[in-house]
Amino acid sequence: MINDPNYKMQKRIYEKYSKKGEGYESFSEIFNLTNSNHLRMIKKLGMKKGDKVLDVGCASGNLMRILSKKYGIRGYGIDITPTSIIRAKKLLKNCDFCVSRAEKLKFKDNYFDFVVSFGCLEHVSDFNKSISEIKRVLKRGGKALIWMPNKDNRYSLHWLDGKINPKKQREDMERAGHDYNRIPSSDTILGTVIKNRMRICEYKFYDSFLQPFYDYKIMPFNSRLLRWLAKCVYGKDKIKDEVHLKHVKEVSEKRAKIYKIYKMILPFVRFVCIPDKIFSKLRVGASIYVIMEKE
């Protein structure tokens, strides 16, 4: 029995979302710029066929589905919500998933070639221990890629939203299990990596202004449009916004067809968001990517 109030709160929140099918596998989660950028950052790791890759905070396994198909890797995933793990096992028979905490990974030392974690480590009770565990399970020369919010987000869209409507932002953060006092600054994140004797290969600020405006303001409308398109093409009862156990594979295949249509507008959106690259260089961003290597 784990006697950790934060762990219990996070598990309660995300188990509830998972049972409802919310927040996992939705159109707005899959077809946004952030997800596309995750894949661009992953490309820098140099994954190849047969590599063992762990996803910390895997939710319903969508990332492992993409990486298995694209790189031929051996996928593994952990999450604290049992319902998400059940869904992930249903989605992918050739990957291994289990219920586990980031602070105590259920794998032996020096096991993985790569570890990835997106939007998970800001929820953990002990960030330092989580980085230590990631290092432990990595092979020597193995790399990890993490993405998470950082507290020093001045001049970003998130910072501006907080100035305009702090009450709503606080409620949104609490609903997502985000405790502002627990979210580390970028210096703390990078310092923790160095403290655990991991070499920082690259770090990049993200979620500055135009990109989050598209993902969080415009994309929800696009999501409704895509769902309407899906219903027109496949019928009212054939596809839903979220993936459910009975039709998870069927829906994923149909989304892939719809994604081909959506991909046509992505180059234009990326072009419009080019100024965000300048903001990133100026350390403006509500989140940060870090690529680290175990030496």
Describe this structure in words.
This protein has 13 helices and 7 strands. The chain has one domain: Rossmann fold. Strands 3-2-1-4-5-7-6 form a 7-stranded mixed β-sheet, sandwiched between helices. Helix 10 crosses helix 11 (about 250-260). The chain is α/β, with parallel strands linked by helices and about 300 residues long. It is globular and about 45 Å long. Mean pLDDT is about 85; it is low at about 235-250. It has helices spanning about 5-20, 25-30, 35-45, 60-70, 80-90, 125-135, 155-165, 165-175, 185-195, 210-235, 250-260, 265-270, 275-280; strands at about 50-55, 75-80, 95-100, 110-120, 140-150, 200-205, 285-295.
What features would you highlight for this structure?
295 residues, alpha/beta, Rossmann fold, 7-stranded mixed sheet, 13 helices, 7 strands
Question: What is the overall pLDDT average?
Answer: 83
- The secondary-structure class comes to alpha/beta
Q: Terminal Cα separation, in Å? A: 35 Å
pLDDT < 50 stretches: 237-251
Helix count, per DSSP?
13
Main sheet record: 7 strands, mixed
CATH fourth-tier homologous superfamily: Vaccinia Virus protein VP39
Strand content: 15-25%
Strand order of the largest sheet: 3-2-1-4-5-7-6
In which range does the helix fraction lie?
40-55%
Task: Examine the secondary-structure arrangement and name the CATH architecture.
Answer: 3-Layer(aba) Sandwich
Sum up the overall morphology in one term.
globular
Assigned CATH class = Alpha Beta
Number of strand segments: 7
